[in-house]
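Message: Study each token:
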Amino acid sequence: MKFFAEVEVMPHKEILDPQGKAVKLGLQNLGIEEVDDVRVGKQINLTLNAENEDEAKEKVEKACKKLLANVIMESYSYKITQS
């Protein structure tokens, strides 16, 4: 079966986010002063084959922990749907 996974990786709230700070400054330069904070992360979309949803979750979890996210500095979440 084919599954589609949307993975979101974000820096931990306690970690300084220089990209987020740069975006916030850019927004202020555009006259958008109402933004209090910006956090920049990444979205990764995977299409994978698995026997069932549990196996798909195991594969995505392994990919997140070992490759897609630096778990010391980043958190991740994902949503899996059958495609």
Notes: The mean pLDDT is 97. The chain has one domain: 2-82.
